[in-house]
Design goal:
single chain; two-stranded antiparallel sheet; 634 residues; alpha/beta
């Protein structure tokens, strides 16, 4: 489904194909909002009276939300904040972190990083809620066609969702080819249905005038403000536009929005509004736009569109997890590449099954899309607010935009985001607690892992031996040399690897060629192949010690076969059958030493035990590995 990193394309045909792909991947979430957004305003838990003034006021809010938040904020402003072409919460965080490579981040910078991590956690919440609410709202169309089918809505929804998650392991390449055309059919269909209804009552188009939105707030007061918690459903999916930028490029995403998605969405919303003006009692305006003979095909198309919307968010969760692993905020997990050609097509079994469990629990707990809508807006509004703050920092520091320009622009965006967030705050008891709790849990796991790895590094350095001192000691006590190559993996190039010290202490030998390999994860998505590997010979040359640095971006997977191939190209020759990889394995012990709270240390130890082994993660030939253990007191 995803292409690898895309530079801005040139040929019109390529732009058109990428724009079609973007329709399927990027706009699935926002494209299925008409299924439930307007219905919730007049028939949901926070419903308002469907008077003509209220209908026009809500449509005006829909129109200006799509224009200001999606068209201006995301497509014109936030999408400029790309990290070598990649977008998304963690790519934005990496941009903010790049200012602090030389040392520890200051308090302000640390708060920004924490905000980004919490935002990433919220996006997982979105990835669980979206499949549940989208597929539920699509299958609820059956009740419009045949009310007797109501008891089958939840079971059918669960069957579709379980099938969707099982399919993940097969990769989405084949499905990806039909996503774009299917979503194009969806957008054309909903636009046509809306246009038919508008033609019967063209005065509904008056709602484009922003005065109707202002009057709506003046007349409805607090209830009008709280309805923003439902209006947010129109713009869920804004984060997906930004997160998928690296797969399609800015230009195709913008073309897909302005040429297809935006006109179709507006036509459908205004068409639903015209239907409500004619019949205020309509309790399912989306499906009531559909001619009766086409109702069942429309339910099928809506279910397909909802599945496609869910697919984009599931893939997004896989992508965020891989970025978190590379940036050091997550333990190593199994990453399966489901396509030989497409780098972006990955599958993480652990994350997949956890998300499926979450989705099933949500559907069984809430049982209707109206109930789930309460949980939905919270994740979106909080993530959008965090993106605005981080984008302001990037605008000031990287684009050198003056405060006089950046502050009013981001201030307007943030005021809108916080208005939506404030309105959603009242929904916390009704379901908004779910994405907040999940976001907090994932934030805790990420920060605990990062701090735990830092603590392990500090403890090993404190009890370690500097590489410089070790090399000097060889002058007085030369070790026994044995043939072959030994590769020691180490995260700190200045300290002698624990495995090397153990080998010298217990086996009392040094291989004729010893390589100290450090794999570095950079705050950028991709590293050019020519910059991947550097090789340095250490003094004295007769010891045969080499230091190798291998650099990877946060959208790439480190691979020992890839590193060895590039090392050979740099002139470092060895026979793989005569090569041994020495890895250190730490046994972690929870103590009262200062560093982390004991419950976090225990959590870190549990995460470490469940992390994937370095042998499997880095694709090291398992029959060439020797592991040497060390105890580390946290």
């Amino acid at each position: 489904m995803h292409s690898p990193h895309v530079s801005e394309p040139d040929s019109p045909r390529r732009v058109a194909l990428l724009a079609l792909g973007a329709l399927g991947v990027v706009y699935g979430d926002i494209g299925t909002s008409p299924l439930y957004a307007l219905r919730e305003c007049f028939h949901g838990p926070h419903a308002i009276e469907p008077t003509p003034a209220n209908i026009l006021g809500v449509l005006s809010l829909f129109f200006w939300s799509l224009i200001i938040v999606i068209s201006v904020k995301y497509l014109a402003f936030v999408m400029r904040a790309d990290n070598r072409g990649e977008g998304g919460m963690l790519a934005l965080m990496a941009l903010v972190m790049q200012r602090t490579v030389e040392g520890n981040p200051g308090r302000n910078r640390r708060v920004l990083v924490w905000m980004a991590l919490f935002g990433a956690g919220l996006i997982y919440g979105d990835g669980i809620i979206t499949p549940a609410v989208s597929v539920l709202s699509a299958t609820e169309g059956l009740v419009v066609a045949a009310p007797g089918l109501a008891p089958y809505v939840v079971p059918l929804t669960l069957v579709i969702l379980v099938a969707l998650f099982i399919l993940q392991s097969h990769g989405t390449g084949g499905m990806g080819k039909i996503f774009g055309p299917m979503m194009l059919l969806w957008f054309v269909t909903i636009g046509t249905l809306g246009a038919r209804s508008i033609l019967q009552l063209p005065e509904v188009l008056k709602a484009v005038w922003p005065g109707y939105a202002v009057s709506f707030f003046l007349h409805n007061g607090v209830h009008g403000f709280l309805l923003l918690a439902v209006v947010i459903l129109v713009i869920t999916g804004g984060e997906a536009l930004y997160a998928d930028m690296g797969h399609f490029g800015r230009q195709p995403i913008r073309i897909a929005w302005f040429a297809v998605a935006l006109p179709s969405l507006l036509l459908n919303y205004f068409g639903q509004g015209a239907l409500l003006l004619r019949n205020p009692a309509a309790d399912s305006p989306f499906y009531q736009l559909v001619p009766t003979p086409l109702l069942y095909p429309m339910v099928a198309l809506a279910t397909l569109a909802a599945s496609i919307a869910s697919q984009a968010l599931i893939s997004g969760a896989f992508s965020i997890t891989r970025q978190a692993i590379q940036l050091g905020y997550s333990p190593r997990l199994e990453v399966v590449h489901t396509s030989a050609e497409e780098e972006g097509q990955i599958y993480l079994p652990g994350i997949n099954w956890l998300m499926l469990a979450g989705v099933v629990v949500l559907v069984l707990t809430f049982r209707s899309s109206s109930n789930l809508a309460a949980a939905y807006g919270m994740a979106t509004t909080a993530a959008m607010s965090i993106t605005t703050v981080l984008a302001y920092v990037v605008a000031r520091e990287r684009w050198k935009v003056s405060r006089a320009v950046a502050l009013p622009v981001t201030g307007l965006f943030l005021a809108i985001d916080l208005s939506f967030l404030g309105a959603n705050a009242v929904k916390v008891p009704d379901g908004g607690w779910f994405p907040l709790t999940l976001g907090l849990l994932i934030f805790t796991l990420m920060t605990t892992w990062k701090r735990g790895r830092e603590l392990v590094g500090e403890r090993l350095r404190a009890t370690g031996f500097s590489l410089k001192d070790l090399l000097e000691s060889f002058g007085e006590h030369p070790p026994v040399r044995v043939p072959g190559t030994a590769i020691f993996m180490t995260s700190n190039a200045e300290v002698a690897p624990t495995a090397l010290l153990h080998n010298l202490k217990h086996n009392k030998v040094l291989h004729e060629q010893t390589v100290l390999l450090t794999i570095q994860a950079l705050d950028e998505p991709h590293v050019p192949p020519e910059e991947r590997v550097t090789v340095e010979a250490l003094e004295p040359p007769e010891l045969g010690l080499k230091r190798v640095y291998a650099r990877y971006g946060f959208m790439e997977d480190p691979s020992i076969p890839d590193i060895l191939k590039r090392v050979r190209e740099k002139g470092l020759q060895f026979n793989l059958m005569g090569t041994t990889f020495f890895l250190g394995r730490e046994t972690l012990i929870v103590t009262k030493k200062p560093g982390m709270a004991r419950w976090r240390e225990a959590l870190f130890v549990t995460m470490s035990r469940n992390a994937r082994s370095a042998t499997a993660f880095f694709r090291i030939p398992p029959n060439r590995v020797v592991e040497l253990g060390a105890q580390v007191e946290l």
